[in-house]
Amino acid sequence: MDRRKFSKIVPAIAVFLLILLLETAFLGAAGTFLYRSDARQMGMLAEEYPNDEARIAGIFNGKRIPNNSRYEDNGLRIFEKYGYSLTDSLFSGNIIFFTLCITGILSLGIFIELLLLFRNMQKTRDTENKMEYLKEKWKESRHFAKQTEEQLRREEQDTKALITDISHQLKTPLASLKMSYELADSSDLTAEERIEFIQKEREEVVRLESLLDIFTHLTRLETGMIRLKPENKSLKRTLTQAVNSIYMKAYEKQIDISMEEFTDIRLPHDSRWTEEVIVNILDNAVKYSPSKTAITIRVSELLSYVMIEIQDQGIGISPSEFQNIFKRFYRGNSPEIKDTNGSGVGLYLARKIIEQQEGTICVKSSGSHTGSNFILTLPKQPADASSKHQTI
């Protein structure tokens, strides 16, 4: 038998045996009392009728009492005549005391047995609830382990893809540098050609540095090392700093960047990384817009969100590419994009940073035939007020 089940049965058996022992003791005491009471009555009758001692003894031990209702009716008549009732019979001596004691012990035994039964049922119920709880926890742990395994598998695949993509992106500037150095070592180059190749090498080094800087951000992003710290700060200040960072590039192409007037609002956002998002979008707008065009920034306050629109007059984006441009290393298919240096990482970073702040980012065509309109939203209140830091 199971030890736990045996430990539950033992108290009930012990109580039953104790009750049985007490009842046996009280029944023995009651029998002894009745025996002594009969002895006193027989002694009194023997003194009153000494010659009938044997007859009286026979009547008391029941051997000489025939099973005849006539004797019983006559006896009841005599009892009634002299006022001897059933109550007098019950309360003569201590019979009622023994009866009450036995009844009390029996009732107490039944109560204790029921109490033990209820306690065992409660323990069984608690055990079943605990088993159900542990079963649910085991299911949750198994589901969590499965999710973790799938996430690790996806991260492993993403890491391999990232390494492949980075290697592919670095091949072009490295190959260009290698070719420039090989040509520069040639003695057939004129001084003007040598200067031209040195300039080309310098441009490729700058491009390589830019790519490495972007890949550093991207690697930190993919490995969760970039930590966002949302704080209630001025949105206008964040936008102004982003415009200032790109102002000289726009000035060189005679592109005007304007911000429509709006009432400043303080909302929870990581100003540094949100500024990085705005800079990436503005940099693309300047890069793919012709000279003497304009870039407009508009801010609208909604019920729960703040909407930021960045509209340019550039080459525009095909609707079929609206979703693809936010993918890692994706670049458009238009000739203008192919002829312009870029890594296809900026908008991917922008999407990850905005989404980690519970915001959204999308693009649509401008009202005119050319240009793009990037639309960002940021919540006025953090989704989880208890979380001060988020990790990408």
Structure write-up:
By secondary structure, the protein is of the alpha+beta class. The protein contains ten helices and nine strands. It has a five-stranded mixed sheet with strand order 3-5-6-8-7. A hairpin with a 6-residue loop joins strand 7 (360-365) and strand 8.
Rounded to an integer, what's the Rg over CA atoms?
A: 51 Å
**Which structural class fits the helix and strand makeup?**
alpha+beta
Query: What general outline do the C-alpha atoms trace?
Result: rod-shaped
Terminal CA distance reads 57 Å
- Identify the strand order in the major beta sheet: 3-5-6-8-7
Highlighted features:
392 residues; alpha+beta; five-stranded mixed sheet; 10 helices; 9 strands; rod-shaped; disordered C terminus
In brief:
With 392 residues, the chain is of the alpha+beta class. It has helices at residues 3-48, 53-60, 69-81, 86-90, 95-184, 191-222, 235-252, 271-287, 335-338, 346-356, and strands at 227-228, 231-234, 256-259, 266-269, 294-301, 305-311, 360-365, 372-379, 390-391. The strands form three sheets. It has a five-stranded mixed β-sheet.
Write the layout of secondary structure elements.
Elements: H1 3-48, H2 53-60, H3 69-81, H4 86-90, H5 95-184, H6 191-222, E1 227-228, E2 231-234, H7 235-252, E3 256-259, E4 266-269, H8 271-287, E5 294-301, E6 305-311, H9 335-338, H10 346-356, E7 360-365, E8 372-379, E9 390-391
